[in-house]
Amino acid sequence: MLDQNNRPQKWEVLDSQTRVKDRFIDVRTDKCRAANGDILDYHVFSYSDWVNVIPFDATTHELVLVDEYRHGIGEPVLGLAGGAVDKEEGLSAEQAARAAAIRELKEETGHSVDAAQLVLKSMTNPATHNNWVYSFIAFDAIDEGETAFDPGDGEFCITVKRDFVEVMQAISTGALHLQAMHVAALWSAASFILKADDLPTTYEPLHTRVRAFLLG
Fold first, then answer.
1. Which parts of the sequence belong to the Nudix hydrolase domain (predicted)?
2. Which tens digit of pLDDT belongs to each residue from 16-67?
3. Spatial distance between the Cα atoms of 33 and 77, rounded to a whole number of angstroms
4. What is the 3-state secondary structure (H, E, C) of the chain?
5. Structure confidence by residue, pLDDT tens digits, 121-139
6. How far is CA 11 from CA 8, 41, 79, in A?
7. What gap in Å lies between CA 36 and CA 28, rounded to an integer?
8. Between 88 and 212, where is the model more confident?
9. What are phi and psi of 87, to 5 degrees?
10. What pLDDT is attached to residue 88?
11. Which of 195, 216, 117, 60 is CA-nearest to residue 207?
12. Going by CATH, does the domain composed of 50-215 fall within 3.90.79.10?
């Protein structure tokens, strides 16, 4: 049941049928033969790649978050600005994700940035999902005030600015619960800040506090 590289063998797809497909979701059922010979029906969710962004306000150096109702859990949830990646001709997957991160930040929070650096690329849920999530950090986000929510999607966010280290402390103690991909992105951002040797000089106090938080 191992392949030539001594990794688990891929399953053989015997048949595939689309169950639901619209602009929000694409679900198919694959009839598969597993490596051990089992035959099973397996559901796969096909999505565009996703992005999220960890932005710091240019004036306050606070983390810029969004507070948004999430219907799956039925509650407002604090988190990062983000969304789906639009494929753009001539751009690599990472370049298209970066453009989407900058766009989503502006649309959801009214903050604009000129650049964003990738801190994490991860699988969303490889058991059932086929897409990737890209997480970017962005400094000196300028608050231009105007949001532009996607029409027809029920989208509405409140922009919330919080001290980055205090957010990380709250996550660590269980006082704050976020979406798992956002938690991974924030920890990656903390690691990036700790290791960076070219942060803007005005972010040195943040670097010092992140170092103390992570290393004690």
1. 46-189
2. 999 999 988 999 999 999 999 999 999 999 999 999 999 999 999 999 999 9
3. 40
4. CECCCCCECCCEEEEEEEEEECCCCEEEEEEEECCCCCEEEEEEECCCCEEEEEEEECCCCCEEEEEEEECCCCEEEEECEEEECCCCCCCCHHHHHHHHHHHHHHHHHCEECCCCEEEEEEECCCCCECCEEEEEEEEEEEECCCCCCCCCCCCCEEEEEECHHHHHHHHHHCCCCCCHHHHHHHHHHHHHHHHCCCCCHHHHHHHHHHHHHHHC
5. 999 999 999 999 999 999 9
6. 9, 12, 36
7. 23
8. 212
9. -65, 130
10. 85
11. 195
12. yes
Give the burial class of 148: count Cβ atoms within 10 A of its Cβ; 0-12 exposed, 13-18 middle, 19 or more buried.
Answer: exposed
pLDDT at 87 over 90: no
Total Cβ atoms within 10 A of residue 46: 13
185 Ramachandran zone, left/alpha/beta (phi>0; psi -120 to 50)? alpha
Read off the pLDDT band of 89 (50, 70, 90): confident
- The Cα–Cα gap between 51 and 13 comes to 29
Cβ partners under 8 Å of residue 82, min gap 6: 50, 51, 52, 53, 101, 104, 108
What is the band of 216 on the pLDDT scale with cuts at 50, 70, 90?
confident
pLDDT at 151 over 90: no
Name which of 54, 199, 24 is nearest 134 in CA terms.
54
